[in-house]
Amino acid sequence: MKIVYILLVVLLLPLFASNQERDLQAVFLGRFAKFIEWPESSKTIFTITLIDENPFGNLLTKLYSGKKIHGKKIKIKYVRNLKDIGITDILFITLNDYKKVQKVIKYAQKNSILTISEQRGFAQRGGVIQLGFVMQKPYLVINYDASLKSKIKISSSLLAIAQDVIKEEK
Amino acid sequence: MVSKKYNASIRKKLVYFFSLSAVIALFISTSTTLVYSFLNDKESLIKDSIKLAEVSGKNIAASLLFLDKESCKNILKPILSDENVQYVKIYNQDGVFFTSLGENIGKKKSLQQDINRMEKSVLFSIDWNNINILTTILHSDEVIGYLEVHLTTENLKKHVLDQAIASFIIMLITTLIVLLLAIKLEKVFLKPIFELLHAMKQIQKDKDFSISLVPSAKDEFGELFNEFNMMASEIYKRDQILHKHNLDLEIQVNTTTEKLKTTEDSLNKVSILATTDSLTSLFNRRHIMDIFDTMILEAENEKEYIGVIMLDIDHFKLVNDTLGHQAGDVVLKEVSHILQENARDVDAVGRIGGEEFLILCKNSDIKAVSFVAERLRKKVQERIIHYEDDKTTQVTVSLGIYSCVPDISKEELIKIADNALYDAKETGRNRVSIGVKN
Prior knowledge:
Largest sheet of chain B: 5 strands, antiparallel
Shape of chain B: rod-shaped
Number of helices of chain B: 12
Radius of gyration of chain A: 17 Å
Number of strands of chain B: 12
Number of helices of chain A: 5
Helix content of chain A: 25-40%
Oligomer: heterodimer
CATH class of chain A: Alpha Beta
Radius of gyration of chain B: 63 Å
C-alpha cells in the first residue's frame, strides 16, 4: 500500500510544481514589463498576447484585471496565428513549430514586441526572454542582441539576474 | 578662617591657574570635539547606510520581483564589506521575509508593524549598540519590497574611544607642556617680584635705603625697579637730612640739658642756702617756720597731734667766753649733729637763734614728744665734744615741750613751748619741761 502512496506522490509532485511555476510565469509576464522600455508610442492600452495554446486558463485575466502597466490599462489577448497578433507589447509564445516561431520572432522584432517563451533554446533562436524554472526557481536567459533588434531596452537589474545573457562580443 | 589655598604663594597660584585653565580648556575642547565627532560619525554612518540601502534596493528590484534569492544575495554581498553592517534582510511588498545575508540573523516573519510606522520611505531606529534602517524598495514608483540594514555601532564606539584615548594623551602632553611653561613663565614674571620683595625685606632689616635694584629688562618690571630705586633714593636723602637734623637737635638738647643741670645745681645751692643754716646745716628759722605752717595745716586736716620741742644749750655764753667762739661753733655743730641723728625721720629740726633750736614732731602726742626730748637731752649730755686737738668739753640742753591737736596758732604753740623751756631753765637746766596751755 505504501508503495502505491509513494508512486502517487512521485507522479503528482511535478504536477503541483508545474502548476506553481505556471502561476509564477503569469505573474512574471507583467513584472518583465517593469524592466523593459519600449519605444515611445501613443498607445493607451498595454497588450499581453498569448499565441497558440493558453496554458494559464483565465489566470492572466484574473491577475491583470483592473491593473496597469506603465500607466496603461492591460489587455490580454489570445491568438492562434501570426496574422492575428496585431499590436501588442508582450508576446508569450507557446508555439511548437520551429518555423512559425521564427516568423513570429521576426514579426516581433519589427514591431518592438517583447517575446517571452519557456521553450528551450528560445533565446538562442532570437527570442528576447526565455523563462524557465529549475527546482521551482526562475531560470532566465536573455538575448540582449534580440532586444536591440526589437528596439526595446532591458533594465540592467533584469540583466543582472539572468542566468545567461546572449550578447555579441564587440 | 582663610583657606590654605588663599595663603599659597603667588608662584604656586600662578602655576595652578595656568595648569587648571589649560586642563579645563583642553577638557572642554576635547569633550566637545569628541561629542561632535561621535554625532557627526553617527550621522554620516546613518546617511551613508540609508543611501546604500536605497541604491541596493534599486539593484535588487528585479531579483525580488522574480523571486531570485541567489541573485539578490549576490547583488547585496558588497554591502557586507562595510564593517558596520551586521546583516541585511529583504522583505516583499507585503512585508513577508524574502531573504537575508550576514551574521546573527533572526528571521522576521512580518514587518507589518514597522511598515505601519513608516511615514517616509525610510525608518531607522538607534540605540547604544545598534542602528536599524528600513527602506522601501521602489520600482517605477511602486513599493515592491523592503530592505532592512542592521548596523552595529561597535566600530563607531571604537573609533570614538580611540579618539578619546588619543585626545587624553594629547591632553596629558599639553598639560605637561603648559605646566612646564607655567613654571618657566612663573620664573620670568615672579623673579623680579621676588627681587623687589627681597630688597624691601633687606631695607626693613637694615634700615638702609641706599640699596639699588638693577632692572633686567626695559619692561614694566624695569619701570617698577626704577621707580623703586627713585623712591628709595628719595627716602635715603630725606633720612640723611633727618639724621643731620637729629644730630643737631641732639647737640642742642645736650647743651640745653647741661645748661639746665647747671641752673638746677645753682638753684639747689640757692635753695639749700635759703633753707639751711650755714653753720649747722639744719633748717634755718624761716624754713622751719614754713614747715611748721604746713604741719599745722596737715594736723588740722587729719585731726592729728603736733609736737613742739624748744631746745636751748645750757650756759652757752660761758662756753663762748671761756673756750672761745671757735669752740662755741664746734659745740653748736656737734649739738646740731646729735639732734639730727636722734630725731625721728618724721621730725624736722631747725636752728632758730644763737643756741636755740626748734624740733617739730609730726603726729606725736605729749608722750611721744617727751620720749624724743628725753632721748635728745641724754645724747647731748653723754657726748664728749672735741673742740681743739685733745681738748674736750661737754654741754647740756634744756627742753620745753608741748603737744596738741592744733586749735591755736603757730605763735601760741611756740610761746607755750618757750614758756616750758624757760621753766626747765629755771628749775635747774638739763631737763625737759612740759608746757601748759593758759
